[in-house]
Amino acid sequence: MNVIPHWLEKQHELQPEATAIEYGEHLSLSYSALREESRKLAKGLIKEGVKTGDHVALLSGNRIEFPICIHALSYIGAVAVCLNTRLTPEELAYQLNDAEVSALIVDPNLVEKAHRTIEEVLLGHDDLIYMNHLPTCNESIELKEQLYLEEVFTMMYTSGTTGKPKAVMHTYGNHWFSAVGSALNLGLSQSDKWLICLPMFHVGGFSLLMKNVIYGMPIRLLSHFDAQVINDEIRYRGVTIVSVVTVMLQRLILDLQQEDYPSSFRCMLLGGGPVPRPLLERASKKDIPVFQTYGMTETSSQIATLSPVDAFRKLGSAGKALAPATLKVIADGRTAAAYETGEIHVKGPMVSGGYYKKAGNDSEYLATGDAGYLDDEGFLYVVDRVKDMIISGGENIYPAEIESVIMGLAGVEEVGVTGTADEEWGEVPVAFVVLQAGADLSLEEMTTYCRQYLASYKIPKRLFIISELPRNASNKIVRRKLFECMERDVY
């Protein structure tokens, strides 16, 4: 098996007093302190009965105990099962049972939900470990000093935008090569500081904990997204890179108003699905270095990212596959031609080998379920989820294309498009729009505007004005739930 030194041990050896994590108003942990806290917790968990190979779940928001728990479990050789805090107790119970969890570490703000959850699973109150009372131990207990790249380290459930969620198994090697591929693409600077505002139970946020100990790069940890706070972190606290999704970038630009970011800020890493072109153009006008990226839980975060040199030349592209990875587009069972939309397929050492208790992926490439195309230079453009595609009169319609157009309308804050049954065409698109304060929009105005950019069969046939879009914990639109949002002003 391929073996490397434990990455936190290595950073303790290389730079023990360097800042590892900043959190709170004026608090931080050095790599030495992060190592000490993680090792003490690992020994405490062992005394509580946690052993190598156990599946230990974490139900937690973004708090400093989260990375300490993650590293503690790696010192034991236990598997961390990261749970989405937005799920209901019933949904959490399904995942705890499915993952065969033996202990649950709980955020003190989520204790009530945890208690309701364990009523439905084979766990008792003795199997709950509270983050505000974590067990620690200073005894001499042997811990893992090396990491085996083929061993499973984490399990994260797919976001469940379609069907039952499945536990994606990530090895140490998956996380290692994901971090290395990102560094080779974005580069690293002595002055880099990466801000975490994405949830750490999701692969996009979790991957930053890996970069932190693999690169030896400080991270700034926020408990939640706050546009004003993040803009201040960039302008006044030395943050150079931020990972966001589309709705976050929209709010950051809105809060920024006429201000600009300093030249030291070098990367707004934007993921979470196709991005409306008007938003990218607004960011470009403000010289915000947006690097669109493409990835999924199964690829341990990003697997393709637009390189800095192409950031403005290839606006809207997710770039090319990271150095250790390969991707292709398949249409009708063959490799698609340039600009031909098909399903994106990926392979590389950051791609998960499969799902827990499910058959592994025997194919050379992983079929992602995402639609996209490559241009004549090989740059990837992500179009939409294949399963979100609308088929109207035999024509394929991708909601993200329509959403991108409608986002160009004045007063539109957010938009989601889905299909609805139609006797004549089978399906037709309909739009759900969130308006900015004081704005108004009619179906006629939207239709007139869309005619300039879309074929007639792509223009939404109905318009619903709603207060917010349904999103999962990754802030992705859950289009199948759009009709549950109908509240007022139905056109």
Which helices and strands occur, and which strands form pairs?
Blueprint: E1 3-5, H1 7-14, E2 19-23, E3 27-30, H2 31-47, E4 55-59, H3 65-76, E5 79-83, H4 89-98, E6 103-106, H5 111-118, E7 128-130, E8 146-148, E9 152-157, E10 167-171, H6 172-186, E11 194-196, H7 203-216, E12 219-221, H8 227-236, E13 241-245, H9 246-256, E14 267-271, H10 277-285, E15 290-296, E16 301-305, E17 320-321, E18 326-331, E19 334-335, E20 342-347, E21 366-374, E22 380-385, E23 390-392, E24 395-397, H11 399-406, E25 412-422, E26 426-435, H12 443-450, E27 463-465, E28 488-490
Parallel strand pairs: 2-12, 4-5, 4-6, 5-9, 6-7, 11-12, 11-13, 13-14, 14-15, 26-27
Antiparallel strand pairs: 1-8, 2-3, 9-10, 15-16, 16-17, 18-19, 18-20, 20-21, 21-22, 23-24, 25-26, 27-28
